[in-house]
Write a structure and sequence with these properties.
Elements lengths: L3 H15 L7 H6 L29 E2 L20 H4 L11 E9 L13 E5 L2 E3 L1 E8 L3 E7 L2 H4 L3 H15 L7 E7 L3 E8 L2 H9 L11 H12 L6 E7 L10 H11 L3 E5 L2 H9 L5 H17 L3 E2 L7 H13 E7 L10 E10 L4 E2 L2 E2 L8 E4 L3 E3 L6
Parallel strand pairs: 6-7, 6-9, 9-10, 10-11
Antiparallel strand pairs: 1-15, 2-12, 2-16, 3-4, 3-13, 5-12, 7-8, 13-14, 13-17
Helix pairs in contact: 1-9, 5-6, 7-8, 8-10
Length: about 400
């Protein structure tokens, strides 16, 4: 544990590193005339094939497979404009077809475009499936922003509330007019600060409420599962973005149960771990920060198993880059669909694996840059889904 003397030293050191003026109020931060900008890490937009803008990195090329014209993208399902009813939108799905969104990112976190359908291989419980549906689009998204705002971290480390609010407000700047967001804060319990809306003024007003924490508990598991369950009933491209220390103190459900519920919800979770620098400085002074290490591992697991990503920025300057990667991963996705060979309605969890292969040689797909050099890439997709139950 960190004693009060050591905590004061940490606060002084972290203030010196960042040059922060802790006297800023949350209202000043979110209401300032010039909003926080994502720096030089801008969201990639689709370009015409074979063209690049001055100063931009040329897109990667897929080798050993001829390019193919992509099919037309089906129009997005209509949204209700009434914010009060948006959260209650439900849809009926054909349970005989499994759909999943897949992001393919290079080693800098940028999406790799123009990968044909034939290069994707989907395995369900290690059994190859036939991909019958394929589309790619830079689609609008519906995001639930879940922010930890507990007294334990925001009061003990006064820098913490500043970092949390900066991070939360920074992500809102990546939104576009046709995106929807809900802001949810949690400590002992979750509170919806604003329901799903595309009005940035309402989102800003919600963030202004992050002033004085109420409870010391930080019930991460409850907040994440409640939000994911609610998001599972909303149609379209969805995601949960969690800004958190990663530590759960008093949730009603366990870590293992949380993993299971998040997988069943089928909503990708993107986690942003905060207070990394304060924690690193404390560890350098011999403090036992095992709870943070455990929290980091939990956040990585939640992200990986739901098809999201985990970020642990130490400096505020790294936040925009993390949000840009989340934005790229969400907007530039391949949507795949298949009819599973296992049609049993047993309610069991089916493990999914997505691979990129050369269909002629059955080897892993080789992707190169404009100079012909191979680049490493990662595939982001959910780990599986829960099979439907028998029809009653």
């Amino acid at each position: 544990m960190i004693n009060s003397g050591m905590m004061k030293k940490i606060l002084l050191a972290s203030s010196a590193v960042f040059g922060l003026v802790i006297g800023f109020s949350a209202l000043d931060l979110v209401a300032q005339e010039g909003p926080i900008q994502p720096g030089s890490s801008t969201v990639a937009r689709p370009k015409k094939s074979g063209t690049t803008q001055p100063g931009e990195k040329a897109p990667a090329e897929v080798q050993q497979q001829p390019s193919a014209e992509l099919p037309k993208i089906p129009s997005r399902l209509s949204r209700k404009k009434d914010d009060a009813t948006e959260a209650d939108v439900t849809f009926k799905a054909d349970t005989s077809v499994v759909t999943l969104d897949v992001s393919v990112l290079d080693n800098q976190g940028m999406p790799i475009p123009r990968i044909p359908r034939g290069n994707f291989r989907v395995l369900e419980d290690n059994v190859p499936q036939t991909v019958t549906q394929y589309s790619v689009t830079e689609a609008p998204m519906t995001v639930a922003l879940v922010v930890e705002f507990s007294n334990r971290f925001q009061s003990y480390w006064s820098y913490g509330w500043y970092e949390t609010l900066q991070a939360a407000y920074g992500f809102t700047q990546t939104l576009r007019p046709d995106d929807y967001m809900a802001v949810i804060a949690y400590d002992l319990r979750s509170e919806i600060l604003t329901d799903f809306t595309n009005d940035k003024n309402k989102i800003g007003e919600a963030l202004q409420r992050l002033r004085i924490p109420g409870f010391s508990e930080s019930n991460l598991f409850d907040a994440m599962t409640d939000t994911a369950d609610r998001m599972s009933k909303i149609e379209g491209r969805r995601a949960v973005v969690v800004i958190t220390s990663g530590i759960d103190t008093f949730s009603k459900i366990t870590y293992d149960k949380t993993r299971k519920l998040l997988q069943e919800a089928g909503v990708p979770v993107y986690t942003v771990g905060i207070l990394q620098l304060v924690r690193t400085m404390a560890e350098a002074r011999g403090a036992n920060m095992i709870d943070f290490l455990q929290g980091d591992n939990q956040l990585r697991t939640f992200a990986k198993e739901t098809g999201g990503m985990a970020f642990f920025p130490r400096f505020m300057a790294e936040m925009p880059g993390a949000f840009a990667q989340i934005n790229n991963a969400l907007r530039n996705q391949y949507s795949l669909g298949y009819s599973p060979t296992n049609q049993a309605r047993d309610g069991k969890f089916r493990k999914l694996t997505v691979q990129l292969v050369n269909p002629e040689t059955n080897e892993p797909l080789r992707i190169t840059d404009q100079k012909g050099k191979p680049i490493k890439y990662s595939i982001v997709a959910k780990a599986g889904y829960k099979a439907p139950l028998p029809i009653q």
